[in-house]
Write a structure and sequence with these properties.
By secondary structure, the chain is α+β, with helices and mostly antiparallel strands. It is about 35% helix and about 35% strand. Strands 1, 2, 3, 4, 5 and 6 form a six-stranded antiparallel sheet that branches. Helix 1 packs parallel to helix 4 and helix 4 crosses helix 5.
């Protein structure tokens, strides 16, 4: 992608929290270009809920006092990897700092949060449901996007993803 890695330098010093499809090792590897770190640890965001992005298969996290969102916290990732993940997440999300809890205590990390263009739906997001409904499509789409990664802007990658998603559903 044409995103500049130096846009992520400051945030790449913190652990990365994923609460959706990137908790899946195959998808994490396809998107990031590296294996899901074996030292990833369970963590959670207090006062948040995870729901399905309206009419989509992926999650969105929003404020919800009394709730919590569980996910994986991985050690700090290189700026280039954060840029690749952001391209996957799309312009509907931005990388921002977040305070988390873990079995070992508090963690300051970064995660992708909605920009405001993304609205949560009413359905709760479940990994098992995502794996059966959307993971096969992601495993088919991502190699095609990765093959063009260096030639696309983030907006162009979003359009290509949408086109490929339509093709997938026609199969």
């Amino acid at each position: 992608m044409t995103f500049q890695a130096n846009d992520y330098d400051a945030l790449s010093k913190l652990p990365y929290f994923t609460y959706g499809s990137l908790m899946d090792g195959q998808v994490f590897a396809l998107v990031s270009g590296m294996a899901l770190p074996t030292d990833a640890q369970l963590a959670w965001a207090e006062g948040r809920k995870r729901s399905r992005f309206a009419k989509q298969s992926y999650p969105i996290m929003s404020d919800s006092p009394g709730d919590r969102v569980f996910g994986l916290c991985v050690p700090a990732l290189p700026a280039e990897v954060l840029a690749r993940i952001h391209a996957y997440e799309s312009e509907d999300y931005r990388l921002e700092p977040m305070s988390l809890q873990s079995m070992d205590g508090p963690i300051d990390a970064v995660t992708f949060m909605p920009t405001g263009r993304a609205e949560p739906g009413s359905a709760v997001w479940h990994m098992s449901q995502w794996r059966s409904e959307a993971k096969p499509m992601i495993l088919w789409i991502m190699p095609q996007i990765n093959a063009k990664r260096d030639q696309l802007t983030m907006a162009e990658a979003d359009v290509l993803f949408d086109v490929l998603e339509v093709e997938w559903h026609k199969r």
